[in-house]
Amino acid sequence: MGCIVTGALGWGCTLLTPLDDLSDGVPAVQGDGGTDTSEGDASGEDVSAEGSVEADATDAGVDSADGETGPSADATDGDASETGTTAEQACAQQAAAFCERVVQCTSAFSMSVLYGDVATCKMTVGQHCLLVASADGAGVTVPELLQCATDYQSHPCEDLVAYRWPESCRPKAGAYANGAGCWTGTQCASAHCNVNPGQLCGKCATPATAGQPCPYGLECDWGLSCQAGQCAPMARKNEACGPGHTCRFGLNCVGLACSDAPDLGAACDDSTGVSCNLINGQYCSAAMKCEQGSLASIGDACGVVSGQVKWCLGGSTCAPGEGGNYCQAPGDGDSCSPSVPCAPPDACYLGVCVLPGSVTCP
């Protein structure tokens, strides 16, 4: 599952991972703005990546779903494939690759915001991988999981922080026809599950191609993002940008061209698109200088607090509460909403946090 980026990256939202249908492209982007330190929340979102894997990746701590509430098994029922590797082991390898590459391509601050720490990243991503791979009707195989893990080890950081996964990690076609209920693209013959923001279940659908509309922000095909209501590729460094043509994450649109974000202590101005390095958790202060944000734990105030930005630790989201914004992480059985999403790998279903695969999507 995943969130929508609205302007600047919001840290601490739900999980975007390989194999998930939301990984087909980048979540919706509305502008290249930075962090507004006047008021409001610095709610969360993730930048994903992966890295080197040892054969014994079972140390990644992947837990499969409970027998009664977890997804019904398909090609990933725990039996070893022709490679001698089970789906659980393959997902552990993929999680290890993903999380190690996050560290290599981003920063320690990013890891703290996205997942808390590397061990939690491996556990969460591995569990999510297994849920996706074992979903009803899923078409992914163990060799495909292993290839994705291998390819993450050398995947360009520029692509990784822009939500561009290796081609081998693209969702694989499943058994369900367009219009069938789904929660992940691997269930669908189109390899795309059209899920509206804040919901677990959606419908299998043909993804939107470049130039087609994306009213909810999540309908675009692999390698595209929703920009100004239409699917389009995001611009790389030095490429042209502007309305309807957004720069990749970590870049600013200045003078109609994408350029690197200024770093700590440098001048910034969100109103002109000169925003700070969000990958390192920096923000543009009232003094128009890039300053370092700090971390907030579950229950702590977050967003803009006394003129400074506080990002929620991984697994929690900065969401409205009584008297302000607080880091929240609803778990199994807790209430949830689009503004207060569940802690991964749970997702919000009919206002309650559930494990994906534990319900049948209509």
Quick structural gist:
By secondary structure, the protein is α+β, with helices and mostly antiparallel strands.
Account of the protein in words:
With 362 residues, this protein is α+β, with helices and mostly antiparallel strands. It has one domain. It is 16% helix and 16% strand. The protein has helices at residues 87-105, 108-114, 118-133, 142-152, 157-160, and strands at 26-29, 181-182, 193-194, 202-204, 225-227, 230-232, 251-254, 257-260, 282-284, 290-292, 294-296, 303-305, 308-312, 317-321, 324-328, 347-349, 352-354. Strands 1-5-6 form a three-stranded mixed β-sheet, with no helix packed on it.
Quickly list its features.
362 residues, 17 strands, alpha+beta, 16% helix, 3-stranded mixed β-sheet, 16% strand, disordered N terminus, 5 helices, 3-stranded antiparallel β-sheet
Would you identify the regions where 5 or more consecutive residues have pLDDT less than 50?
1-18, 21-78
Distance between the termini: 18 Å
Mean pLDDT: 80
Helicity level, as a percent range? 10-25%
What is the H-and-E element order?
Answer: EHHHHHEEEEEEEEEEEEEEEE
Estimated structural class: alpha+beta
Largest sheet features: 3 strands, mixed
Strand content: 15-25%
Shape: globular
The rounded Rg comes to 19 Å
Query: Strand sequence of the main sheet, in spatial order?
Result: 1-5-6
Number of strands: 17
Count structural domains. 1
Report the oligomer.
single chain
Helix count equals: 5
How is this fold's topology laid out?
Layout: E1 26-29, H1 87-105, H2 108-114, H3 118-133, H4 142-152, H5 157-160, E2 181-182, E3 193-194, E4 202-204, E5 225-227, E6 230-232, E7 251-254, E8 257-260, E9 282-284, E10 290-292, E11 294-296, E12 303-305, E13 308-312, E14 317-321, E15 324-328, E16 347-349, E17 352-354
Parallel strand pairs: 1-5, 11-13
Antiparallel strand pairs: 2-4, 3-4, 5-6, 7-8, 9-10, 12-13, 14-15, 16-17
Helix pairs in contact: 1-3, 1-4
